Amino acid sequence: MLQCQVIDNPAFINAQLDFTFNILQQNGLNSSTIFSPISLTFALAMIYFGAKENSAKQIRNVFGKDLDENEIHCHFSSILSHSKSKNVVVKYSNRTIENQPFKDKNGILRLDLYIPQPQMFYLDFVNRIYARNGFKPLEKYVNGIRSYYNAGIKEIDFSQADSAAFKINKFVADFTNNKIQDIVDPSSIDDKTKMILINAIYFKAYWQNQFITSNTFESDFYSSPKTTKKVMMMSTSMMINRFKNDEFEIAALPYEKHKATMYIILPNERFGLQKVIKNFNTSKLIEILTNEEFLRTKKTAVKFPRFKIESSLNVVETLENLGITDIFSDKKVDLSGITGRKDLSISDIKHKAFIETNEEGTEAAAASGFSYIANCRYSMRIEFTVDHPFMFIIADENLNILFAGTHF
Hints:
Elements: H1 10-27, E1 33-35, H2 37-48, H3 53-63, H4 69-86, E2 88-90, E3 119-132, H5 139-149, E4 152-156, H6 161-175, E5 193-206, E6 217-224, E7 227-244, E8 248-254, E9 260-267, H7 273-279, H8 282-289, H9 292-295, E10 297-305, E11 307-314, H10 316-321, H11 336-339, E12 344-357, E13 361-374, E14 378-385, E15 390-396, E16 401-407
Parallel strand pairs: 3-4, 10-14
Antiparallel strand pairs: 1-16, 2-3, 3-5, 5-13, 6-7, 7-8, 7-10, 8-9, 9-15, 11-12, 12-13, 15-16
């Protein structure tokens, strides 16, 4: 894979955050959802490599209007390289549990809590294109996506729809530890299908400060004015970054070695998540994350529910609302950088994602499939209790958005 210099350009982050919040505003207002902005943008970037004229311009506007083509591809290539260099899986480390009370909820000293924590941080991506037998993309395109995105092209017999879907789905399931199943439906494959582009992401990481299982208790979670459900509420005391204003509070729960962080946005109003999402934007988040109050860690009693979400997303409408329309139009599309001809358009985009959060940390995965058809610390104790709908973002240390979603 091509070794690109890491590009520190705020335009990338701002564009990705805009993309994230746009999807949340269109898909996360009424029910729990999870998606991976980075997975979707990787797939879009591989399409962009073969797009020309207005088709390319519309995609580039999502990444950053003032960025040139090489900057865009090098940015995503550097994310791939950097993610692999951070991975660590150690069964047991020599450090003790930081910032944790070594007594259980009954105040009894627990010597077993001195057992060193295992370490886990694993983040990986995979990109692959499945091409119909005999269909040959341009050599420049094949070499480019291999160099920048480590993406291979594999020929497959689309005339055998069930078999083709099984092979693609098995590839994605194996990569995501069986968290993403059936990304491709056999019924979506027909004699017009020329290519299916797949991007998948798998993430598993332990919290920097793990919750203590013995402190977890059953509690109410107020999903809506008419619905209250029982959840297992994790509980601990730790030093965290936190900020609160008139609308919401935001807390940062870091993963192993601070290589990634979950940002939890909790409305002050119990059932005010919809309003918070509609009013949330990139500049607001950046302002908070650089705010002096947020940057000071505070001793906080954190209560956070275990949760698991699986969701599917067809993002064509979202992309069209962002101005990416030509690639879906037989008359306007120009993906001639893939085939040398303007006879290729995108018929559908499928995205599936999964997240599970518990006392140890988080496991999450997502996959995107694009089908182409011919044509200073305070000692004061503060509470952060997550007992009603919230928004969450998982980002790496450079604020690349790995996952985002809502929980009701």
